[in-house]
Design a protein that fits this description.
alpha+beta, 5 strands, elongated, five-stranded mixed β-sheet, 10% strand
C-alpha cells in the first residue's frame, strides 16, 4: 500500500496536469471545459496529501504541483482572468512550479527535494555527512536548471502541428538526461568534493559512511581488505573491502586480509577525525596493525573528511 501511495503521489500530479493541458488544447483553451476535471483532480490530490500527512511522508512534488492545481481550480471557478491564464499556460505553470520547488527550499534552509529520494538509499550516518548534503544540493540545482529549461521551451514559438514536439522535449530531457544523471553524477562528485572535517558519534556510523566518502579517483588500482577489531565502548568485528573504485564494510572476519587493525573505539574515532596523530598513537601502542601497514598512509587520501596528520613511515615487522 505504501508503495502504491508513493507512486501515485509522484505520477498522478504530472498525469493530472498533462490531461488538463490536453483538454485545454482540444477546446481552444476554454476555461469552462476544465472546471469539472480540475476540481476532481484537486480532490484526489487533497486525499493523497492528507494520507501523506498522516504518514509524515509529504512529497515535494505533491506540494508543488498540488498547490498549482488548487490555485488553478479556484481560478477556474471564481477568478476569470486567472482562469484564462491557467487554461492557456497550463504546462508553463507546471514547470514553473517544479522550478520553484527546487530553487526555494535551500534558500530557506529547508532540505532540497533531492534529499527525499537519496536518503532512501543511504543509512542515516551517511546522510549526516557534509559530502552527502553538498552532493544533494548540487543535484537539486541541476534539476532546478532542467525545470527552468523546460519552462523556457514553452515560450518558443511553434506552429500548432509541432505542438506535440513541445510536449515531448521536456519529457525527453527529464527522463533521458535527468534520471540517468541521478545515477551517474553522484559517484563522480564524491571524488571531486572536498567534504571538510567529518565527525561521527560512533565507529559504527563511521564505517557506514565510508562508502560515500571514498575518493574514486584515488582508489584506482587499489584492491585491499582491511580487518578491524574495535573494542571498548563499541565491540565491532568487521572488514572493509576497497576494490574496483568501490568500498564496502561488512561484519565478520575476512580470510587473509591485507591489513588488520585493532583499536579502542574512542581511539579510532579520534584517529579518523584527525584529533590525534597516527604515528604518535601507533608508537604509544594506542592501536596495533598487522600486515601491510602502508594502508594507513592511504586511508587519509582515499576517504574524504578530516585531514589528519599523515602517518610517517614506521618500520615494523607486524
Amino acid at each position: 500500500m505504501k508503495k502504491i501511495i508513493n507512486i501515485l503521489s509522484m505520477g498522478f500530479p504530472f498525469a493530472a496536469i498533462t490531461i488538463i493541458n490536453s483538454v485545454s488544447m482540444s477546446s481552444s483553451h476554454d476555461p469552462n471545459k476544465l472546471i469539472l476535471l480540475s476540481t476532481v483532480f484537486s480532490v484526489i490530490l487533497l486525499g493523497l496529501f492528507i494520507i501523506q500527512m498522516i504518514k509524515k511522508e509529504i512529497s515535494y512534488f505533491l506540494i508543488a504541483i498540488g498547490f498549482y492545481l488548487f490555485i488553478g481550480t479556484i481560478s477556474l471557478n471564481a477568478i476569470k482572468p486567472l482562469a484564462l491564464l491557467f487554461a492557456k499556460y497550463t504546462m508553463h505553470g507546471l514547470y514553473l512550479s517544479l522550478f520553484l520547488m527546487a530553487a526555494l527550499p535551500p534558500l530557506f534552509k529547508i532540505a532540497p527535494f533531492t534529499y527525499q529520494f537519496s536518503k532512501k538509499d543511504y543509512p542515516e550516518a551517511i546522510q549526516k555527512t557534509r559530502s552527502f548534503k553538498v552532493i544533494n544540493l548540487i543535484m537539486n540545482y541541476i534539476w532546478a536548471g532542467i525545470f527552468l529549461i523546460c519552462f523556457a521551451i514553452y515560450f518558443v514559438p511553434l506552429p500548432m502541428d509541432l505542438e506535440i514536439v513541445r510536449l515531448a522535449v521536456p519529457f525527453i530531457i527529464i527522463f533521458g538526461i535527468g534520471f540517468p544523471m541521478n545515477k551517474k553524477l553522484p559517484p563522480i562528485l564524491q571524488g571531486k568534493i572536498n567534504a571538510g572535517p567529518q565527525t561521527f558519534d560512533s565507529v559504527k556510523e563511521m564505517f557506514e559512511a565510508m562508502p560515500m566518502g571514498l575518493n574514486r579517483e584515488k582508489a584506482k588500482g587499489i584492491d585491499v581488505a582491511i580487518q578491524f577489531y574495535i573494542k571498548g565502548s563499541e565491540q565491532i568485528t568487521g572488514f572493509l573491502i576497497i576494490k574496483n573504485q568501490k568500498c564496502q564494510f561488512m561484519n565478520g572476519v575476512f580470510e587473509n586480509p591485507t591489513c588488520t587493525i585493532k583499536a579502542p573505539a574512542n581511539v579510532w574515532l579520534d584517529l579518523s577525525s584527525g584529533k590525534i596523530d597516527q604515528a604518535e598513537a601507533y608508537l604509544k601502542g594506542m592501536f596495533s596493525m598487522e600486515g601491510d601497514a602502508s594502508i594507513m598512509l592511504k586511508l587519509n587520501d582515499l576517504f574524504q573528511g578530516g585531514k589528519p596528520k599523515k602517518m610517517k613511515e614506521v618500520k615494523t615487522d607486524m
